Each structure stands twice: as structure tokens, then as C-alpha cells.
Amino acid sequence: MSSVVLDASALLALLNQEPGTEVWSAVIGGSVISAVNLSEVVAKLADAGMPETEIRDALDPLGLEVADFDAEDAYRAGMLRPQTRGLGLSLGDRACLALARQANLPALTADQAWVELRIGVEIRALR
Q1: Residue ranges of the domains in the chain?
Q2: Does CATH place domain 4-125 in 3.30.830.10?
Q3: Which of 35, 61, 76, 114 is the 20 to 30 Å CA partner of 11?
Q4: Under a CB-based contact definition with an 8 Å cutoff, are residues 67 and 99 in contact?
Q5: CB of 92 closer than 8 Å to CB of 40
Q6: pLDDT score of 1 more than 80
Q7: What pLDDT shows up at residue 75?
């Protein structure tokens, strides 16, 4: 059973072992991530020049539960746009928040601005 929904920024910070993330490394094995956010992480690693096999070698052992993103999820994420527009949240950000809301789990992010959100989702910032 998952205990937290990971945002792409949180997973990247954890993978990069950024300061302050060591406390959160224990939650990785019990977390879920939207397929949209996983795609963002893969894209960032690919942009950095990492080959697909290395990306899979880095991500697969984490044992992340990957949540599909279907039509209902698209509506849930889309309906968050008016409430999150002021903070400039992306589709990936809203996919994470929509999953957290739907699963009734906290969202873990490296984006401190999310703490300001009042959308019925517990936000946990890495730092």
C-alpha cells in the first residue's frame, strides 16, 4: 500500500541526492507516481544524456507503483487548473495532485510553492 504520491521534482531530487532529501529516501519504496510524472522524470534524465537502459536501471529497482493516467484522471487534473494557475503548475504537477486527491494520500514535492495550495491535498515539501 502506498503512503505518498511522488511529484517528478521530488523523485528527481531524491535521485540526485540533493541536500535535505535523505529523510525522504525511506518513503520511495512505498510510494506511487503518476505515469505522467514518471514520463517527466525519464525526459529529464534523457535530456541529461542518460541512455534508456541506465534510466531503467536507476528507476526500476525503486519499486515505484506507477498509476495509469486515463480519461478520468485527465478530467481530475484539468479541473485543478483554475485553482493552480496562479502558481504556474504544469500538467504533470496537476496529475500528481489529482492522483493524491483521488487516493487520499499526501503529495511529496520539491516545489515549495505547493505548500500554499488549499485543494484538499496534504502537501509535503522536501525542504
Answers
A1: 4-125
A2: no
A3: 76
A4: yes
A5: yes
A6: no
A7: 98
